[in-house]
Amino acid sequence: MTEATAAAHQTPEHPERVAPETDLMSKFDRLIAERQALLDSGVTDPFAIVMEQVKSPTEAVIAGKDTILLGTYNYMGMTFDPDVIQAGKDALDQFGSGTNGSRMLNGTFRDHMAVEQALRDFYGMSGAIVFSTGYMANLGMISTLAGKGEYVILDADSHASIYDGCAQGNAEIVRFRHNSVEDLDKRLGRLPKEPGKLVVLEGVYSMLGDIAPLKEMVAVAKKHGAMVLVDEAHSMGFFGPNGRGVYEDQGLEGQVDFVVGTFSKSVGTVGGFCVSNHPKFEAIRLACRPYIFTASLPPSVVATAEASIRKLMHAHNKRQHLWENAKRLHGGLTQMGFRLGTEKPDSAIIAVMLDDQEQAVAMWQALLDNGLYVNMARPPATPAGTYLLRCSLCAEHSADQIDRVLAMFQAAGKATGVLS
Ligand code: PMP
């Protein structure tokens, strides 16, 4: 460091402060430059979208413009349900705005117990534990279940929270090819027999909206003596006769050891959970650091979650409408000639695949300018270097809105040269 730079880092309040030799922030220079290049090209910053007003589960004002929301994971449209909102207001009035503490100490209120009971009822399972987010549920469950000398076997396209759960724990990590039953079988077969093994799967993979062949995978896991955890974040409420998820849809009740989920999608608030029938499941609360060492959810949040989960048990019409919307959008986009992440409308996520970042950004901006918000996703979050515009449907989208969305995709596709 030169004298001049050292002097520049001394302040009148801290004359002794000297800048460190290496700026730890310099590792972000490439990211800063990439983002700046994107902004210099004149596009709206896709990572700084502000919802200035939210009018309903499907409509918001963004940059002063009425916009249809098609990228929110608000699958069942519960965020504006009057009963859900009322439950939150009542809890705010009765219990205040926050808990000020961990579930283990002063942070368990009436409605934390009530929402865990609602989860037991929804899933028909004996155990339910609520976490502060779905991210923390995966972090906590995976790092706590699989310890030193044991194994976590996960799909290569797993969500970041699953990878981070592996990183937080001490188990050995084994990855298998996305949705490959054969590769899962092969990799499990190479492991020593005795140590504990946890196979981690997702019902719906959120980048392409494809579903896992859970039936075959659970059979393979069981053959090798592994326990199974399934993250059903993107399926709760509308897969299976009771909306429990892909595992229920594929007839796997009683065969999955742990189901992880979130309140941030179909439930319409924030929070995460794990449910299980394991007789010792409660012990997780005693050992799980992301459960113990953080504050519990505010009473208003758990009260809204409880009201929402109980309504989701009977939301058959909404479920049906959501699937109709998925079919309508998938069919329309396919007909126009867009390349999609799945051949059929397998889930409520429909991913439009584009060739490169330039195409993705141009399409995304054209849609936004016309009043449509979708999620843009790019590597490393996406599989195999793909650039995606991810659409997620809501049970509250009307058929007319979907038709308007399709017209906007057609116009944007033509304007950007993605469609010929
Ligand atoms: N699992 C999966 C598969 C997810 O997609 C997400 C969030 N997108 C999470 C877990 C984390 O959920 P939350 O938003 O509640 O942290």
Describe the structure.
It comes from Stakelama flava. Pfam families: Aminotran_1_2. With 420 residues, the protein is α/β, with parallel strands linked by helices. The chain folds into two domains: 39-69 and 316-416, Aspartate Aminotransferase, domain 1, CATH 3.90.1150.10; 80-312, Type I PLP-dependent aspartate aminotransferase-like (Major domain) (Aspartate Aminotransferase, domain 2), CATH 3.40.640.10. Helix content is 39%, strand content 17%. The protein has 15 helices and 16 strands. The strands form four sheets. The protein has a seven-stranded mixed sheet with strand order 4-12-11-10-7-5-6, sandwiched between helices. A hairpin with a 2-residue loop joins strand 2 (59-62) and strand 3. The protein is globular. It starts with a helix and ends with a helix. Bound molecules: 4'-deoxy-4'-aminopyridoxal-5'-phosphate (PMP). The site of 4'-deoxy-4'-aminopyridoxal-5'-phosphate has 13 residues, from helix 5.
